[in-house]
Amino acid sequence: MRRSNVIRYALEQYTSYRVPNIQCAQSVWYTQSTNNTFAVWRRRVHCSTALAQKRPERVQLSSVRFPQLKRGDFARVTDRDLQVFERLVPSRVLTEPDDIEGHNVDWSGTCRGDGQVLLRPKTTEEVSAILRYCNGRRLAVVPQGGNTGLVGGSVPVFDEVIISLSLMDKIISLDEISGVLVCQAGCVVDKINGALEPHGLMTPHILGSKGSCQIGGNISTNAGGLRMLRYGNLHGNVLGVEAVLANGDVLDCLSTLRKDNTGYDLKQLFIGSEGSLGVVTAASVLCPRIPGAVSVALLGCDSFAQVLQTYDAAKTMLQEILSAVEFMDRASMEVVQENLQLTCPLGAHSYYVLVETSGSNAAHDEEKLNSLLGYVMENGIVGDGTVATEPSKVQSIWALRENVAVALRRDGCVYKYDVTVPMSRFYDLVADTRERVGTDVTRVVGYGHLGESDIHLNVTCPQHSDEVFDALEPWVYDWVAKCKGSVSAEHGMGILKRDYLYHSNTGPAVLLMKQLKKLMDPKGILNPYKIFPD
Amino acid sequence: MRRSNVIRYALEQYTSYRVPNIQCAQSVWYTQSTNNTFAVWRRRVHCSTALAQKRPERVQLSSVRFPQLKRGDFARVTDRDLQVFERLVPSRVLTEPDDIEGHNVDWSGTCRGDGQVLLRPKTTEEVSAILRYCNGRRLAVVPQGGNTGLVGGSVPVFDEVIISLSLMDKIISLDEISGVLVCQAGCVVDKINGALEPHGLMTPHILGSKGSCQIGGNISTNAGGLRMLRYGNLHGNVLGVEAVLANGDVLDCLSTLRKDNTGYDLKQLFIGSEGSLGVVTAASVLCPRIPGAVSVALLGCDSFAQVLQTYDAAKTMLQEILSAVEFMDRASMEVVQENLQLTCPLGAHSYYVLVETSGSNAAHDEEKLNSLLGYVMENGIVGDGTVATEPSKVQSIWALRENVAVALRRDGCVYKYDVTVPMSRFYDLVADTRERVGTDVTRVVGYGHLGESDIHLNVTCPQHSDEVFDALEPWVYDWVAKCKGSVSAEHGMGILKRDYLYHSNTGPAVLLMKQLKKLMDPKGILNPYKIFPD
User: Fold this and answer.
1) Distance to chain A for B471, nearest Cα, Å
2) How confident is the model at residue B265 (pLDDT cuts 50, 70, 90)?
C-alpha cells in the first residue's frame, strides 16, 4: 500500500508542482548595480530585494558596496594555512577564483564576498579540525549550505574561509517505524525526499529551493516552507543536531527521541542562528507520512473580513486535513493573468484564498472540501469558488499562486518584503503601502501564507526609483515593528536585515543574543558581520 | 457549529476521562521513609518513585535525607529582607510554617525543602523586583508553578525563597482566528481550556495534572502529555515567552507569530530548563481546534513485531486523524483486571495497542478505523480487536490504559521508570528487566506512549526490597543510556535524576549547559542544586 501510485503522485505534488525552479530563476534575477557611496550603501542595504531583468556583469563586492563595514580583526589566509587545510581535507581545498565565484555570490546576486579559499569537508571530524585550526589562527569562516538564502547570510563579506557542507550528503539512518531520519547536514531536501519516498515518508518541511537547499542550512535559518501550517516548524520537528562549535568541539545532540528532557535542549540554539553559534553537521528529523490524497479549493472574497471568515471556516471544517491556506489579492491575480496569461477559473474578486487539503482518503477529503464550499457560499462569505481533486487541475490552481513572483518580475523592478504581521493587520500593510506610494508605481500587490500570517508585500516599477524606495524603507519595517510583526518571516537577518534586528527584538533580548554569541564564539570567527547591527 | 455538543463532548474527552485526578491520588501516594545514612541517601535518590500505601507523618527534609548536598554560598533571609519583600509584594509574603508546608513538599512526597518564605507576585514587574533584590542579596530562589513535577524540581532543597506563580493567572489575549493565546505563567491548564472552549480551541498539550499544573511550569519542564503525537511538542507550539532573568531584567520574547526569524530564538532557552535560567512569567501558545469526533480501537497482538506492524499500519492508514497510540503488555492488562476488576473486551494477548483518532467527521473516522481493523486482522497482525465510537465505550477502553498506575499501587511497593528508548528496543527493556529481577517481584509491567517511544517500566513487590532496588538501579538507567535513550522522558532532571545527566548527554553538552547557566545566572540563585550533578 505504501508504495502505491497514489502516494507517488502525492509526493510528486508535494515536491514538484508547488515550487519554481530556483536554479533556472537564478540566471534571470539580479539586483540593481549601485555607486559606491554611503547614501547608496544605505539604499543597498535596505533595497536588498529590488529586482530587475538583466544580471550585471559582476555583482559588486559587499566590502565595496557597504563601506561602513570594517573587516574584523581576523588573520588572513597564508600559504602555510593552505598547506594545513590541504592536510585536513586533502584535494578539497579550492583556491581558483572560478571555482569559488559561485560560493562568494549569494543566490539573489545581492552580496558578493571576497573569499579566497573554499573547503569541502566530508566528515564531522574534518569540520572539527578546520574550526579548531581556524579558531586558533583567528581565521573567520562562513558555513555554506545550498546558498539559497535571501539575506546574504551564507556568503563571505570580506575574505572569510568558506566551509561548504555540500559533500556531507550522506543519509545516516532511517527508522521507518518512528519516521526519524538522521543525515549529514549537506543533504539536499530533494535527495532526502527521494530517500524517504520508498518508505512512504516525506520531510516535514518543503521549500521553493528544495532542489538546492540543504537540511543544515534549513536548520540554521529555521526555514518554514509550505507545510508549516500542517506539520509545524523545525523547532518541533528537528529531534537532534550535531554541531561543531567555534573551537572545534563536536556537540553531539543527535537524539532521535520525541521525548527527551535531560537538561537544556541545546539543539535549539542552532535552529535559526544562521551558523553563528556553530556549524550544523548532522541532524535527525521527524518525518510524516506522505498523504494519500491532495485537493485544493480556490475561493473568491470581496472583503478582507470575508477572507478571515473563510480561513476560520477552513480551520474549523477541515481541521486535520488542512495543509495550506494561501492568499492572493486582486492585483496578484491580475499580474499572473496580464504578464503570464494564466487563466483564473473564478471571476474578479478583491481577494482569493487557496485552501489545500492532504489526507488519507480522497473521497472523505473531497466531501469535507465540498461541505466547506457549500457553507461559505451559502453564508455569503465567498462569492465564487471551485474545488479541484484531479492532479492537473490541482496543479493549475497552484500555478496561479506560485507564479506571482515570476509574473511580477516582468513589470521591471520589484521591491519585495517578506514579513509576518498579526492576522488582524495582515492586509493593512498592503493597503497602507498602496496609499503611501500612490501612482508612482506600476502596482502594489499582497500575497502569501495566510495560515502563517506571512505576507509578501511587493511593489513594482518599470525601473528603480529613489523616490519609491525612499517611500518604502524604512517605512515598511517601521510599520511592521509598530504592530509587533517580524521583519523577517524567513531567511533570518544575514547581512541585509541586520540593521533591523531591534525592530523585532527588545534591547535585553539582543543583549542576551550577543552574550550567547560571545560565550560560544569568543573570537567571533563564525559567520561574522551577520545578524547583529554594529 | 463551533459551540456544538459534539465539540463540548470532544473537549470533555480530551480534558477529563483520560486523566486520573492527581490531587486525590496525592493523599494515598507516598515514598518509603529511610534512615539518614549515605547508603540510604543513594537509595533515596535512585528510588525516588518507590511507592507504597501509607503516607509517613512528615516527609523527611531533603537536606537531611541527602547529606551529601551542601547548602550553597547564599545569604539567609533576614527580617530586613522580609520588610523589603513586604514592600515588593504587599500582603503576599507568607512565613507561617502551615502556609508554606505544601510548597516545601513535592507532589510525590519525595522531597521536602526548608523554605521559610513564600512570595506570591501578581505581575511580571513584581517578579522582576523580587529577583533583582534576591540577586543583589545573593538569596537563592525556587520558582514554583503547580508543584506537580515528579523529580523534586519545584520545591526548595534548603531554605530557598519560594516564588509561587499561582496568582499570575490572567488570560491576556486570545486571537480566535490564529488560535494564539497569551496568558500569564500561573494559568492552570484546565482554566486555559475553559477559556478556550467557547472558541472551539484547546491547548496543544494535556496532562494528567491538568487540574493543578500551570503553563509556566509546563514550559519550564517541556511537558509532553497525551497529545504530543498529534500536535507536537512545546518547542513547536510555544510561540513566545516572557521571562525574568536572574538579575531581574525582563526578557520580552512574547511573540505571537508563527514565523519569526529575527536573531536567536531565545524563548527556547526557557522551555525545559526547569526555571534555572529565568522565571517564565507569560507565554503565547498556538492552540488547535477541538476535534469534532473521537474514537478508539483496542487491538490485541501476540508478538512485539506485530505491535510495531500495528503502529505502522495505524500511522499509514489513519494519518491525519491519529491522535494517540498507547501500549500495554499482558501484565499491565492483568493488573487492572486483578486489582481493579476492570473488564477487557478482548481475550488474552501478549500485547495490547490502543489507537485513538480525533477528526472533524465521525463517520469518516469510523470508516478509516474499521479499515485499519480489517487490514490488521486480515493480515494476521492482530488477533482480536474492537472499535468504540460511543462516548461511554471510548471511556471504558481508555480506563484500562489509564488505570494501570492505580492498579499497580495495590501490589504494594512500585518502582517506576519513565524513559524513552528507540522504538526498536521499546519492549526489550521490560523483557530484560523481567529476566534480571526473576521471581523476586510481584510483577514487571511495561506500558506507555508507543507513539512517542515512551515506556513506563514498573516493578512491584509487596514491600520495599533492597535486593530488588539494587538489581534495578542504576542498571535501568545504564540500559537506557546504552541504547541512546533518555533517562527522563518527562519532568526533567530536578534533584532526583540529576546524577544521571551524563547518561543522556555527552561531556561537551553538559559543559555548554553549565556555561549557559553561568552566563545567565552568574550567582546561581535560580533553582540551585537541580539538573546538574555536583
Assistant:
1) 23
2) very high
- Pick from B423, B454, B510: CB nearest A263: B510
Structure confidence by residue, pLDDT tens digits, B115-153: 999 999 999 999 999 999 999 999 999 999 999 998 999
Q: How many CB atoms lie within 10 A of CB B330?
A: 16
Q: A28-164 has which CATH code?
A: 3.30.43.10
Mutation target among B260, B268, B289 for the A interface, most CBs of A within 10 A: B260
Cell of A333: 491575480
Give the whole-number percent of chain A exceeding pLDDT 70: 89
Does the domain made of A5-23+168-286 have the CATH classification 2.40.110.10?
Answer: no
The CATH number that domain A293-395 falls under is 3.30.70.2190
Cβ within 8 Å, pair B259-A316: no
Q: Residue B45's pLDDT is what? A: 30
Contact A491 B261 (CB under 8 A): yes
Task: Give me the mean pLDDT over the B440-457 stretch.
Answer: 95
Examine residue B291 and say whether the peptide bond preceding it is cis (omega within 30 degrees of 0): no
B488 chain-A contacts, CB cut-off 8 A: 260-262
Q: What's the pLDDT score for residue A47?
A: 33
What is the ipTM metric for this complex?
0.90
A2, A228, A257: best to mutate for the B interface, most B CBs within 10 A: A257
- Write the residue in B236, B249, B264 that is nearest to A516 by C-beta: B264
- A/B interface, count of CB pairs below 8 Å: 292
Is the CATH number 3.30.2130.10 carried by domain B167-286? no
Residue A424: what pLDDT? 87
Distances (CA, A) of A446 to A253, A283, B10, B135: 40, 35, 38, 49
Nearest Cα neighbor of B268 from A283, A197, A27, A513 is A513
pLDDT at A14: 39
Put simply, the answer to whether B263 touches A493 (Cβ < 8 Å) is yes
CATH 3.30.70.2190 for domain B293-405, yes or no, is: yes
Of B1, B262, B520, nearest to A505 by CB-CB distance is: B262
Query: Which three cell numbers mark A14?
Result: 508535494
Spatial strand order of the sheet with B141-144 comes to B93-94, B118-119, B161-164, B141-144
Helix (H) or strand (E) holding A420, with range, is strand A413-420
- Tell me yes or no: is domain A406-495 CATH 3.30.70.2740: yes
Q: What is the pLDDT of residue A40?
A: 27
